[in-house]
Amino acid sequence: MKSSVKGIINFLAEAGQLKRVKRSGWWVAGIRDPESVAEHSFRCAVIGYILARMEKANSHKVLLMCLFNDIHEARINDLHKVGHRYIDFKKSEDKVFKEQAKLLPSRIAWEFLLTRRSYNRQDTKEAVIARDADILECILQAKEYLDIGYKQTKSFLAPGEKFLMTKSARILFKEIKKWRSSDWWLHLKVFER
């Protein structure tokens, strides 16, 4: 039991590393200090939960996929799509994921690996929703960066709809394109006396 407890603690510490790993795709758009992988994963999970509820799917499975989708980046960092063009990053991701699972008790590791396999294969409704959540989070972040002046991020918005598979994600995407990122707080009338 001691070694599995230590393995869990090591896994949790490794997950904490994601707070320091930056989302590198934004660097090509000129953003010096983009959000971390942990920040992305958090909002991806929130989006995933909402999409799961909208699509009447198993929200627990979607949350697991969203939370653990990028956990491998604690060891190998985030690599933007330009880099993926030259490096078979998928193979490395899978290797890291399997090694990370070994830190966990077998019943947790089993669920962890099954969740990952389903996400990669896109073979369940929940996997499709989790992927849509990941894409929507990037689109939402791109729109926020665009609204504060990073014009290059507009290119991240353009192909969004063709990659989204669920009806709910497409509905949210259409609204995000029209939305201003300050809308969430401006309606609160924080400047009234």
SSE inventory with pairings:
Layout: H1 2-16, H2 37-54, H3 59-68, H4 73-76, H5 81-84, H6 89-101, H7 106-121, H8 125-147, H9 154-157, H10 160-163, H11 167-178, H12 183-186
Explain what you see.
- With 193 residues, this protein is an all-alpha fold.
- The protein has a single domain (2-186), classed as Orthogonal Bundle (Hypothetical protein af1432), CATH 1.10.3210.10.
- It has twelve helices and no strands.
- It has helices at 2-16, 37-54, 59-68, 73-76, 81-84, 89-101, 106-121, 125-147, 154-157, 160-163, 167-178, 183-186.
- The termini are far apart.
Count of folded domains: 1
Largest sheet: none
Strands, total number: 0
Portion of residues in beta strands equals under 5%
Total count of helical runs of at least 4 residues: 12
Proportion in helices: 55-70%
In CATH, the architecture is Orthogonal Bundle
What is the alpha-carbon Rg in Å?
Answer: 18 Å
Order of helices and strands: HHHHHHHHHHHH
Kindly identify the CATH topology: Hypothetical protein af1432
Name the CATH class.
Mainly Alpha
Which regions are unreliable across 5 or more consecutive residues at pLDDT < 50?
Answer: none
CATH superfamily descriptor: Hypothetical protein af1432
Approximate shape: globular
Distance between the termini: 59 Å
Q: Structural class, from helix and strand content?
A: mainly alpha
- Overall residue-averaged pLDDT value: 93
Keywords:
mainly alpha; 193 residues; Hypothetical protein af1432; 12 helices
Gist?
With 193 residues, the chain is mainly α. The protein contains 12 helices and no strands.
